[in-house]
# Entry
Amino acid sequence: MKITTDQIQEFNKTLEGQHETSLRCLRDKLEASGVDSEDLINKLVDLQIAIPSWALGTGGTRFGRFPSGGEPSVLEDKIEDIGLLHALNRSSGAISLHIPWDIPKDPGAIMELAASMDIKFDAVNSNTFQDQPDQKLSYKYGSLSHTDAAVREQAIAHNIEVIRYGDQLGSKALTVWLADGACFPGHMNFKKAIENTQDSLADIYAAMPDDWKMLIEYKPFEPAFYTTVIQDWGTSFNLARKLGEKAYTLVDLGHHLPNANIEQIVAILIKEGKLGGFHFNDSKYADDDITVGSLKPYQLFLIFSELVEGLHYMDQPGEYAWMIDASHNVKDPLEDLLQSVEAIKIAYAQALIINRKKLWEYQENNDVTYAQEILQDAFRTDVRPLLAEARRRSGAAINPLGLYRKLDVRKKLIADRGSQSKSTGL
Ligand code: PSV
Ligand code: MN
# Structure
């Protein structure tokens, strides 16, 4: 299924009057406080968020799964789904593949299909957390950290194979997330496990093309319940530091123990030049993988505030991988992804309107009250008309979710693919 320019324009016409009124009000308010709203709109047009190939189907837990139908079961259909998202918001112009869930059988044809929808290939993800049917050795007790060198070699070879796939598609980064860890105290020798991991990563690093990045994800627990080998940002940072300048830390918002100060982690990684990118999601308890910004929008805003602050701090601002990593248990995955992209862009726009100079002044003078005020003033500004304008100018829908519902996209996907079609992934 495709959404045409005519459908978008026709829909936008019905919303234009109301949109222009709210945009005018917001622009007046922002210009009065010295914000260049044109510049802001351009920045919003430019921000693209990668969609993971595994988030287009219904997620679930070990207790069950309740698919709503029309899921994309092959890579071509997944790209088609991202094409729909990108047509609706013009902000989802990248896909992140998980191998072997989504092996491109004919890379040339896949690239052509993606290019026809203006979609690029973001970081590729390896998978040594599951055993595949044709696999020789098991990852039951780990992969890159395993006690047995033969298992480590198999996991290294897999990661190198993933790089090769990504290279054929124009990806420039490998994301490594390890489920390696221990379920019970005593099982894992901490020092040996991290040493093995460091050595295995060095072999993978050596096989990366020069213009690639390695993004090392961390997570405190799950699926291992006692501990994970790369449990926190410090461990990831240390691995990346030792590997070299092409290795970075990847921050998945859901991979922190409760109440961790993620914005501070982000600031320190920026300062050290080791922030590689994000997996955006939201959570209340642990790795809940729910819609970005649905629970802690202020935290998301504070993270973006550090990112914008980083633009001033660095001589050369870093280029980060922006990706969603979520699971949709009871919502239509495409609707959830539209909401997530919107939440990310709202946080970004709010961070851009912070009066940075004043904030620095208040920080220097320890004016605690006004430092807080300046942040909250930006956070409490409804910036959605700016997002809508950025979309309108780039040929997207003023209200993507509204058009998605109006066109009855899910119903059409079910008619095309059937009510039982299942997506690969977790
Ligand atoms: C692990 O929880 C994780 O965040 C990693 O990024 C995986 O690759 C992804 O989720 C798989 O769903
Ligand atoms: Mn993740």
User: Anything to note?
Assistant: The chain has one domain: 47-351. The mean pLDDT is 96.
